[in-house]
Known about the structure:
Blueprint: H1 2-19, E1 30-31, E2 37-39, H2 41-52, H3 54-61, H4 102-121, H5 124-138, H6 164-182, H7 185-201, H8 217-221, H9 226-236, H10 240-254, H11 264-267, H12 278-283, H13 285-295, H14 298-313, E3 339-340, H15 341-358, H16 361-377, E4 386-387, E5 389-390, E6 414-415, H17 425-438, E7 441-443, E8 447-450, E9 456-462, E10 465-472, E11 480-487, E12 491-496, E13 503-506, E14 511-513, E15 516-521, E16 524-533, E17 537-541, E18 545-550, E19 553-558, E20 561-568, E21 575-581, E22 587-588, E23 596-598, E24 601-608, E25 614-621, E26 628-629
Parallel strand pairs: 8-12
Antiparallel strand pairs: 1-7, 2-9, 3-5, 4-6, 7-8, 9-10, 10-11, 11-16, 12-15, 13-16, 14-15, 17-18, 18-19, 19-25, 19-26, 20-21, 22-24, 23-24, 24-25
Amino acid sequence: MKNAIISLFMLTLATLLTAQNVAPQKEVFTPIRLGEVKPQGWIKTQMRQDLRGFTGNLEYLVPDLIQKDEIYGKDRLTHKVKSKDVGALGDPGDWNVQFLWWNSETQSNWRDGFVRQAFLSGDKAAQKRAKAYIESILATQDADGYLGVYAPDLRYKLTGENGELWAKATLFRVLLGYYEMTNDPKTWQALLKAVDNVLLNYPIHQSSPFKAQKPFAGLSHGLVFTDVLDRLYQLTQDRKYLEYAVFLYEDYSKNAVSEPDIQLDNILNASYQMQGHGVHSYEHLRPLTLAYWSTGNAQFKQALDVYLQRVQKLTTPSGGPIGDEWITQPRADATETGYEYCSIHELLHSYAVLLQKSGDPAFAEQIERTFFNAAQGARHPEKSGIAYLKTDNSYAMTGTKNGAGDPKQTRYKYSPAHQDAAVCCVPNAGRIAPYYVQSMWMKDADGLVANLLGPCQLDTDLGAKHVRIVEKTEYPYQNSFSFSITTQSAFVLKIRKPTWAQGITCNQAHQTENGYLKIAVPMGKTELNLTFETAVMAHTFAEKEHYFSYGALIYAHPIAATEELGKSFPIKGFYDWKYRPIKANTYRYIADHQAKFEEASIQIVAKNEQTQALETIRLIPLAKTILRQLSF
């Protein structure tokens, strides 16, 4: 009888837990190991250009922030350090304590992009530099496993603003990437030991890492230490990493922090308006996502759904999310919404995590929109530099937003460093392509999934059998693909069908299921040729504006501009650039726009707002523009 009661109790408990959906959620896709997908075509070319440009030369462009500050080694922060040169312009005062950890972010985010680009693009000289860096950083590890920016008198003891977890998160992402691409055991063991040092000194449920007086950006950034924990779980299947990630999110939610958008109570408050520094608000999607998938907690799921809806309202047609640098508007605006390159990368990274865990192809669509449009459109199309801040409708790039506003603003220009603001966006511009490439292919229970399209080569194993797929394409600049497949065993290949595809031409038998083409691939060699057919599409934005797309690309009317050379850097050929429009003509949408696609551009009829005359104008991809009008 006693055993029957216990059995009934356990059954009732299990039923309640199932009803409340508190079981960990199954991840739909398995990530491909970094390095198994390598870019080809224009993506590889761009990576190699960046290694010869701002990504490969940043340590020489801003030597004071990188070469002359061994912040993880001999220049670790102690209580005696009261200031540090980070290159940014600012007023003196106690608030500058927030800057002390900045160089760790600059250095490690830059190294993350540099190391990944070096190995993914096959640049042997850059790989040699990457290896030397890894050896030097591992040499700074203390006997107890500590890797970080603080000396013993400060580490794990700071009661105010600090960058303990943030400096580690950025560095450990470098080590993870290097390990995955090289399988170096020394790096792996050092990483495991360093993470265990964190878990020991901030014990789970017995400490409060986010409790601080006057917290600021470093503390809030530290929540994405969960990036490291997520990947370690995937590589080891040790749930202690997931449990610690949930602990971090819960601790962050209950403390007074400077970036409260992601706190659970604020998300579940229907009247709350997002107000944080954009980059935090978009990177914090990942800790919330991991907390939900690790637990199945229904409140976390509700919060994730609400948060995603809020982010969508903050996103421009190109995929750029509000962040100039704070979220000061309830909705995005194609002219007034400035977005930071850091925010572009962090939102893309968050969507990649959501895609992997949920299997929802809508996140792949968002990633492509962001990478091909906002990210490419904020790069200089010819020179080595990026826009720290950019708008979809970009009428001037002279430092201030569209040539107006705060005269002290410097971020609306092109630069290989942006040292007068902060050297954060340029490092992230070096990270975004490797993170896109890493998520192009994933695995599922049936085989392989092409989630993000583009030129690449995949070499991976399904079980003990090797598969190689060479994807040749100029996508997104055209929509035809050739997949050359060599496999030692049969498997199912899934290729995402974009929502803009109006027709499919494929030389292999296929089914369409849940947004994917499903193709049975036999053992041996298979040539798969695929074309997605589409047409020019006109979209409505913010109820009164319109913009045009063809396939995955958003098109804009380029505005002729004069170029002004700005600051020069220690390396020959590197400068800041500003641009002023030659003519201030803008255009308005008309219903009879007669849009047609020809010669890699869209032609439309629009009304010249200055003359009121109807004109035929040519729109080109955002990636090829500097000044432009995107919405009409």
